[in-house]
Design a protein that fits this description.
With 195 residues, this protein is an all-beta fold. The chain has two domains: 77 residues, Immunoglobulin-like (Sandwich); 110 residues, Immunoglobulins (Immunoglobulin-like, Sandwich), CATH 2.60.40. The protein is 0% helix and 49% strand. It contains no helices and 20 strands. Strands 1, 5, 8, 9 and 10 form a five-stranded mixed beta sheet that branches. Strands 11, 13, 14, 16 and 18 form a five-stranded antiparallel beta sheet that branches. The chain is elongated.
């Protein structure tokens, strides 16, 4: 069995799983596979022949494929709260003093929103948007950060070496499990550099 997006989706999304029937030697055999939900309050199979599954509520659901009397092991689907937007949760401009001992920016803070609350456990990917391919800086602790219990992701930009740039534009992307940006994403930060 295979679930797109690692079996992660948001409330209101559809999932199209796939499976294949195998014989005793492990070879694929032509067969119509049918799907069912073991947790109908969380996920509902709307078409048992295709496996089209609707995410109804936040939680962990299980899907099972069957061919004749053979049934697969239940496979887990993770339904997340639907993100409404992403925004900066602090200043979007900062200055790095290159001669300072740490050469670090202030925190580049992004919040993932679900209604009036923050959404935990969502990846935020920070990249240098301009100048492209810049190697004079790095993200500390890292460029991909998961939001905390309040929906906040934080990283900092550090000057490493090389010619001092005038400024760096940082893009922070918050995406749905299917890869689409949420409204407000990417969040843009500008970090200026001084001697």
């Amino acid at each position: 069995m295979f679930f797109p997006d690692s079996g992660r989706l948001e409330v209101g999304d559809m999932l199209l799983p796939s499976a294949r029937a195998l014989n005793g030697r492990g070879d694929t055999v032509p067969a119509q596979v049918y799907w069912s939900s073991l947790d109908t309050a969380i996920v509902a199979v709307v078409d048992s022949a295709t496996g089209a599954t609707f995410a109804k509520a936040v939680g962990t659901g299980r899907l099972q494929a069957r061919f004749g009397s053979l049934r697969s092991n239940p496979q887990t689907v993770f339904v997340l709260v639907r993100l409404d937007s992403a925004s900066a949760a602090g200043p979007i401009r900062d200055t790095i003093i290159v001669s300072a001992p740490d050469s670090l920016s202030d925190s580049l803070v992004v919040k993932a929103w679900a209604g009036a609350s923050g959404a935990p456990g969502r990846p935020v990917v920070y990249t240098v948007a301009y100048p492209p391919g810049d190697s004079t800086v790095k993200f500390v602790p890292k460029a991909s950060v998961v939001t905390d219990a309040a929906g906040i992701a934080v990283t900092r930009l550090q000057f490493i070496t090389g010619p001092r740039p005038d400024s760096i534009v940082v893009s922070a992307a918050v995406r749905r499990p299917n890869g689409t940006d949420v409204p407000g994403s990417p969040v843009i930060f500008v970090v200026e550099f001084r001697p």
